[in-house]
Amino acid sequence: xxxxxxxxxxxxxxxxxxxxxxxxxxxxxxxxxxACNAEGNLAIRLVQNEPKAFQSFLAKYGKFLGAANYLAIAxxxxxxxxxxxxxxxxRLVLKAQTLGLNTCWVALSFGKGKAKRAAGLQRGEKxxxxxxxxxxxxxxVPHKGKTFADVAxxxxxxxxxxRGVEFALLAPTAVNQQKFRFALFGQNEVLAERxxxxxxxxxxxxxxxxxxxxxxKKNFCWKE
Length: 224
Known about the structure:
By secondary structure, this protein is an alpha/beta fold.
């Protein structure tokens, strides 16, 4: 499965089997984690066989079942930490999908203290959120979302922009709120911005990664 195919195949999964993450899958994930940490100046860890973070009251409220593995998304506190966490976290989500694994972004409904300890976070490292990961009992289901007109502004947009927005609309966002907008300036300058909502900075990073996959990084540049 390619990353592009993973965009269409990925859906949030909250119930997992007891099948462990295999040695090859784990090795491929850790290699990608190392790359993301280096490129994104992050401190992401893969935590395996540790279900306690999903046994808290909040986790039960989130209806997680059998979740025992997760990515702890962390980094040094900074103004743009949440956006980088979203961008590189989603890169790992889609990598996991290509490996036959399922995932679910979790910003609130987990035991944060337990996750911090299990991940071995150091002083000066902030835990942003976690991503449940493993072999899902199902592949999840798609949810109804917004349209191009709801989230994009462009006159006679080129195909790459249309495809970028298409991929962004397939991205996970907090409670499927899709509070983001893309605007095309000139021939190839794109502005991406959040339009409210909670966890909007994380969501912005996620949808920007999806947009880049769909549009092709060679076709445009981000407008500051």
